[in-house]
Amino acid sequence: MKSINDEVINEIVINKSRFITVLCNINDKNEVNDKILEYKNKYKDATHYCYAYIVGGYSKCSDDGEPSGTAGMPILNVLQNNDLTNVLCVVIRYFGGIKLGAGGLVRAYSKCVSEAVNLAHISDLIDGYYIEIEFDYDNIKKIDYLLKDVLIDKKFGENIIYSFKISEDNYLEIESILKEKTNILKKESILISV
Q1: Confidence class of residue 140 from pLDDT cuts 50, 70 and 90?
Q2: What is the chain's alpha carbon radius of gyration, rounded to the nearest angstrom?
């Protein structure tokens, strides 16, 4: 499986209709409604906000008022054909006055998403974990050495809390030391990019 690294925004005009395609990374389907609302606020007065997403083996699409099967499904098909997951694609359409017909809409939405995917930085995904650990200051040097190649969000207080993503293989190599030297607050299976 693959996913995109950064948000991509691409705009094309087809027969006077303006299509703005937004691709963004999501980790949970609960993020979808907030993202769509964000784009509706950013691109006010658009005629349609058609979308598709794939996350955690689940997919969904919406034609948002376009004829059935002419927008959401073509968007989803492009995402699936590119083996993408953890991704939301919203195509915002400002109607330009010329009807495209069912076939024209399918081609237009497919083209919009294909162009956006071609602009995206795509990474392979592997099994991994999101980890939060807590430990005392006496162990900071050992933990920092253990996680020297990992990007860490660090919080300092009475104890230290590190949050990070790590591949399953790398975690298995250091699991026993982490269990011995830290309190593992959270361990959640995720897909991480490589």
Answers
A1: very high
A2: 21
Set out the domains of the chain in order of their start, with CATH numbers: 2-120 (3.30.230.30), 126-193 (3.30.70.240)
* pLDDT higher than 90, residue 193: no
From the CB of residue 134, how many other CB atoms can be counted at a distance below 10 Å? Answer: 16
Which DSSP state fits 84? B
Contact present, 55 and 29 (Cβ < 8 Å): yes
> What one-letter code names the amino acid at 163?
S
Length of the chain: 194
The count of other CB atoms within 10 Å of the CB of residue 124 is 12
pLDDT, one tens digit per residue, over 6-21 is 999 999 999 999 999 9
CA–CA distance, 124 with 191 (Å, rounded to integer)? 9
Q: What does DSSP assign to residue 85?
A: -
d(CA 191, CA 86): 9
The span from the CA of 81 to the CA of 43, in Å, is 28
Tell me how far apart the alpha carbons of residues 33 and 29 are, in angstroms, rounded to a whole number.
8
